[in-house]
Amino acid sequence: MKSKIIVIMLALCMLVVLSSCLPGDGKNTPERQANFFTGIWHGWIAPISLIIGIFDHNIRIYETHNTGWWYDFGFYMAVISGFGGLALTRRRRRD
């Protein structure tokens, strides 16, 4: 019982930490644009952004104020790798 409470509390803390850097939260402006590393972060938290964006219409999956190609590259690299798409080889299970 005690370990379940700890796991739930850690999950809630992680959700708060992850949601503090969502795309569309107003931190990035045309003067201070999102860069490559921000694109990687937004790609990793894209599923969370999607869920929160259903309830808060200011939150998006993708930051509109970005540096262009480098942000796009970081974003898509993180989205693809988050689902295991960057693995060059796959191990087969031996039954």
Radius of gyration from the alpha-carbon trace, in angstroms: 16 Å
**Count of extended strands:** 0
Question: From N to C, what is the helix and strand string?
Answer: HHHH
- First-residue to last-residue Cα separation: 36 Å
The helix content is 40-55%
Q: Quickly count the helices.
A: 4
What is the mean pLDDT? 80
Indicate the low-confidence ranges by residue numbers.
none
Described by strand count, sense and barrel closure, the largest sheet is: none
Q: In terms of structural class, how would the helical and strand content be classed?
A: mainly alpha
* Overall form: flat
Count of discrete structural domains: 1
Percent of residues in beta strands = under 5%
Please characterize this protein's 3D structure.
The chain has 95 residues and is mainly α. It has one domain. It contains 4 helices and no strands. It has helices at residues 2-19, 36-44, 46-55, 69-82. Helix 2 packs parallel to helix 4. The chain is flat. The N and C termini lie far apart (36 Å). This is Lipoprotein. The chain crosses the membrane at residues 69-89. It comes from uncultured spirochete.
